[in-house]
Amino acid sequence: MSVTTPTDAPGEPGTITAAITGLADADALGVRSAPTGRRALAFTIDAAIWSVLAAPGVIGAVVLLRVLLPAALGEASAAPADLLLPSILVLVSQVLLAAFGLVQLVLHGRRGVTVGKASLGLRSVGVVALGRPGFWRITGRATVLWLAWSVLPVVGPALLFASGLWDPSGRGRSWLDRLGSVWLVDARHGLDPADPKAVRQARRALVPPPSTRRESLPSLATDAAGAPALVPAARSASGVVTAPAAESAWVPPELAGNPRDAVLVLDDGSRVDVAGDGLLGRAPEPRVGERVVQLLPLDDPRMEISKTHAAFGIDDAGFWIADRGSTNGTSVAEPGRAAVVLAAGERTVLAWGARVEVGGRSFTVERAEVGA
């Protein structure tokens, strides 16, 4: 059982949940990247609205310059009446731009849309659990865009947006998207991660129907598979039945072996035995003075896993994992429960069968087989 409290109510075992646990899960369910053309058109719509709101301010600023510049050069005097209207235009324009910018940031951070994106059926989602991107991440993204415009007008923003064309993951994520840990998806022609009903239906389509085949039950007169035969106890000369020998006692397989033995089954089918405290990531390295016995490097062609992404280990409580402040986070989904994004630095003990998502890779935590 997890130590952390999930943000969504846990479902019953076998429940089809509406949680998407990462990019690999999203691909399987049918989440699609936003096409380049509609992405550019959405930005054009937002920029057009911005330009309309900025136009009165530009006009007012030009008029002010035409009035104030001759006055500054001593060629003419500036009458207060000539300054009133252009000043009002500049002020109103700035207020409208500030209000529009704030609305855009709130909508984008909390719902994943801007005016342009919403009109074209696009949505930004976080890359960890495909939820809302977050206000501050989007604000940081917008700040970088503004700085790029300030340093290299037109060219800077164009380069940032064009960087999605050479995204190695093929999802069209630009440098801005990577900075904000977001992914722009096509919610109109693909699966909308914000629609729980659609996600449940997509997941249900992936789950095979339950088998109707009846398992043949062993006869009560025969031995259970894997269990030693029950041999009648010996009877003494006095007629007393003696207890069976201790070595004939049967231990159920699920209780045998060391409960601290665990194995990680990666998404590529490989298996890694947990030897003790360890680190995983793109190229994990321990901190100064930190002692670990296992380093687990993960291939990451999409560059979504941090260098040292998470720590893990196993103790008397079971297998645990802790995010190490990674860029794209770590999420876990225990059997029958919704996915939970882990808080950085917090150890979380997982149940057997839990699925862990780190960047674009995932693995399942299983108990090691007895005698393996």
Automatic annotation (TrEMBL):
Keyword terms: Membrane, Phosphoprotein, Transmembrane, Transmembrane helix
Cellular component, GO annotation: membrane
Protein's cellular compartments: Membrane
Membrane topology reported for the UniProt record: Multi-pass membrane protein
Keyword Glycoprotein recorded: no
Pfam families reported for this sequence: FHA (PF00498), RDD (PF06271)
Regions that span the bilayer: 47-68, 88-108, 144-166
Name the record gives this protein: FHA domain-containing protein
The organism of origin for this protein: Agromyces rhizosphaerae
Taxonomic lineage of the native organism: Bacteria, Bacillati, Actinomycetota, Actinomycetes, Micrococcales
